[in-house]
C-alpha cells in the first residue's frame, strides 16, 4: 500500500518555519510547522503549449512560455512581469493566473498570489486550483477561508489522502480537535499502515486530552 509521502513534506519544514515564525516552545506549534503543501513546492515545468505543424505561434503564446522559462530559472521578478503582459492581453487565461500565483508564492509574496487566484471565478476554478488557493491561505494563517476550499475539493476527490492530511493538520492548529481526528480516521482507514500519519493522529489525541487512546495509537507505531 502506497504511503503518503511524509518525508517529502517534511523536507520543506524549514521554509514553513520561516513563513510562520513560530516558537519551538510548544509541541503543538512545533509540529504544525512540519508540512508545506506540495502544490506550492517548485515542481517540474509545465508542458509547453501545443502548436500544430505549420501554425504560427502568436506573441502571447511565446510570452507565456517566456514567463514559464524565467520562473524555472528562478528569475521571478522578470517572470511576473511577463505573466502580467500575457494576462493583460488574455485576462481570462486561468492556467496563466494559477502559474503566476505560484511564482508570486515562490518569490515570497503570498498576499499577491492570493489576490491573483481570487480573480478566478469559482465556476472556473479546477480542483487543483482550489487546493492551491487553500494552501496559499494556510501559508498566511487564513484558516477560515482555507477550510471550505479543502472540504469542497475533498467532496469531489475523497481519495486524495494527502490533501485530507493538510485539512486534518490545519484543523488541529485551530484546536478543532474532534474535526481533525475525524479526518485522520478517514486517512488511517485508507492507509492503516502509515506510521507517520498514525503518530500525528496520536499527537492530536494528546492535545484533545485523550491520553489513553493516544498511548494505544503510539504503541502501534513502535516495535
Describe the structure.
The protein has 223 residues and is an all-alpha fold. The protein has a domain of 103 residues: Serine Threonine Protein Phosphatase 5, Tetratricopeptide repeat (Alpha Horseshoe). 65% of the residues lie in helices and 0% in strands. It has 13 helices and no strands. Helix 4 packs antiparallel against helix 5, helix 6 runs antiparallel to helix 7 and helix 12 packs antiparallel against helix 13. The protein is elongated.
% residues in beta strands: under 5%
The total count of helices amounts to 13
Please name the CATH topology of the domain at 37-45 and 60-153: Serine Threonine Protein Phosphatase 5, Tetratricopeptide repeat
* Main β sheet profile: none
Nearest-integer average pLDDT: 81
Strands, total number: 0
Terminus-to-terminus distance = 20 Å
Oligomeric status of the shown chains? Answer: single chain
Radius of gyration from the alpha-carbon trace, in angstroms: 20 Å
Secondary-structure arrangement, i.e. CATH architecture of the domain at 37-45 and 60-153: Alpha Horseshoe
CATH superfamily of the domain at 37-45 and 60-153: Tetratricopeptide repeat domain
Structural class: mainly alpha
* Low-pLDDT ranges: 6-41
**Outline type:** elongated
Series of H and E elements: HHHHHHHHHHHHH
Q: Helicity range of the residues?
A: 55-70%
CATH class of the domain at 37-45 and 60-153: Mainly Alpha
